Structure formats: structure tokens, C-alpha cells
Amino acid sequence: MNSKLCEKLNIEFPLFAFSHCRDVIVEVSKAGGFGVLGAAGHTPESLEIEMNWIDEHIDGKPYGIDLIVPNSIDSKESSNLSPEDIEAKIPPEHKAYVNSILAQAGIDTQDLWQRPQAGYGDNMREAGASAILDVAFSHPIKMIVNALGVPPLFMMQRAKEAGVAVGALTGAKEHAVKHCESGVDVLIVSGTEAGGHCGEVSTLVLVPEVLDAIGDRFPDVAVLAAGGIVTGKQMAACMAMGAHGAWCGSVWLTTSEAETNPAVKEKMLSANSRQTVRSKSRTGKYTRQLRSQWTDAWQSEDAPAPLPMPLQSLVSEPALRKIDKLAESGDAGARNLATYWVGQGVGLMNTSVSARTVVYDFMEDYATAVERLGNTVS
Hints:
By secondary structure, the chain is an alpha/beta fold. The chain has a domain at 4-78 and 119-254 and 352-374: TIM Barrel. Helices cover 42% and strands 13% of the residues. It is built from 15 helices and 11 strands. An 8-stranded parallel beta barrel has the order 1-2-3-4-5-6-8-9, surrounded by 5 helices. Strands 7-11-10 form a 3-stranded antiparallel sheet, with helices on one face. Strand 8, helix 10 and strand 9 form a beta-alpha-beta unit. Helix 2 (22-30) packs parallel to helix 3, helix 3 (44-57) packs parallel to helix 6 (126-136) and helix 5 packs parallel to helix 13. The relative contact order is 0.14.
């Protein structure tokens, strides 16, 4: 395709796949797209294992990684918090509320709470993220992306030294300008329809708004549209507005390679586009998730206010891990609570196919849409 990103990254089709599943990354890149591995939650050791596997299976095709190093986070500068310090930041009422949610579903909570490890959340601070970057840059990645906020200077410097493109997600035009001023190569312009962390403005509005805002000031910055995009026709629509490609996350969650909990995958395949909710209850920042009894509970007036990132995850993730395990074994109460990040495009995700098939369907759907659009011009 005639796209600046295809030329820059040596890919055939500017479809970017964000996934925590290494199999999805490999299959998308081998099919002509560009896989981006979510590194949040990895230790340097576990990331090394994943990236070694990718290198062995991707046939030399390009790929990248995605980190979360937010500009706003609890104890942003500190990486020396003891387990006691961290635990003291969790109000008892938050734990009690989680206990009540699970108890109503008949789930035992006696083994739920464990003392956090020292330095919890360090992967989102410079010290921990730098260790992840050490691993990432020892592999042949072609792009590194910061998922929350302007990429920090240490990330930008490492990437420039390695000749690796830098991307950043943005949900507002003023943030997009700040990203460009910092020197990013790729803007992932993510509308509120997106799964996971998202802003308030729809993709259809945000993409042209950002393109107008950066205008001629940053001609070398490529723009990827994101948020609710699960078909090639949607990708074509965004590129008709001026985007250089599409960034997709949700559509891979129901593929045959995806490691999504089978109980959640089943719920996604039958969900409609109204069955998602945008809430701070999982990470402390707004994320879009599949609606369930868990998300409903956190929308209640009785729910405590979510804690700042990364503390809210200490409240939510122990419970959600237990819910996932029980849901997979068939526990009815857990299945009602089970949820995961997914965008409003879930209403179009009705069948489970391979990641490679998704890429090929995007290509065919895109070509058909472009032809249809061309036929409107006399």
C-alpha cells in the first residue's frame, strides 16, 4: 500500500495489532500487518522469554512493544515503597466492598488478599520501565509505544539511539500536540469507543480534530486511528479522513490464538455494542470494559471512589483473577462477574477466526470500501 508507515516500517498493510498474546503478534506481522506486544505486567525475565519466542517464529517480520509509563501516577518518583507502605495506601472500605461483591456471587474471599510486593508499580516508573527497555532494545523491534501520556525523555532517547520509531496513544487534540512537540513519530489517536484506557471523544470526531491540530507543524508524524475499529471498511473510513492506518486491540481478543478467558470470549462473541462501560474501577484511570455484574457494582452509588493508578489495581486484580479462574471452571456466579477490556466494536465481533484471517478480511474489506468510495466520484 501507498502509506508512509508501510514504507517506514517495511510492512504491506498499515494494520497495527495491539495484543498481550505473542501468537497474535507473530500471525499479524507474518500476514503483512504490524504486531505490537503489550509489555505491561511483564518482568524483564518474562518479557525476555516472550520476545525470544517471537523472534524465533516471526520470520524476520517487523514488530513492536507497548509500555505504560503514565505522566500521572501515585508516588511517581518513588520506587522504594515497602509492602507495608503500599498496603497502608489501600483503605479498608475498598477491600470490604470487593469482598461484598464476591460474597453476593457465592465466592469465598478468605484467600483473596495478599501483601503487595515491594516497589509495586515500578514498571510504570523510570527505574522499572528502564529495565523493560533494556530487554526490548536487545531485540529487533521497530517501534515502541507509550500507552498513557507523553513518552518520557528516557524512552525517547533510547529509541532514537536505536533507530526505533516512537508512538504514543492520545485521546485529546491538546495531548496530541504535546506528543508531537516531544518528538514522537506515530500518534495513535484513540476514540472513546476503544477498549482499555480511553478518553471521551469519538473516533470519528477525534481523528480529524487531531489532524487539523497538528496540521503542517508536524508533517513527518504519522497518525493511526483507533477506537472501535474491527473491520476494513472502518479502517478505510478513517484513512479517508487522513489517517495513515489503523490500530486495533479488541478484535484480536476473540481470535483462535487469543489467550482470552474462554468464558469471557464467549460473552464477547454474543455481546452487542452497548454492553461495554467506561470506568476507573479497574486501573484508576478510565478504561472501557465488557459490562458485567462486577462493573455494575462499581457504577453503584455505594461504591467507593477508585484509587489512583496503580493502587486501584491492587483492589481489583486479585478479585478479577479469582473470578476468571472460577468462571473458566464453570462457576455461575463468577461467569456473571467476569469481564475484560474491550471496545464498542465488540458488537461486530461475532465469530472466532484466526488472527491471520482477521488481517486478510481487513484487506479485502478495505479494498471493497475504497472501490465503493471511488465509485462515488464522477
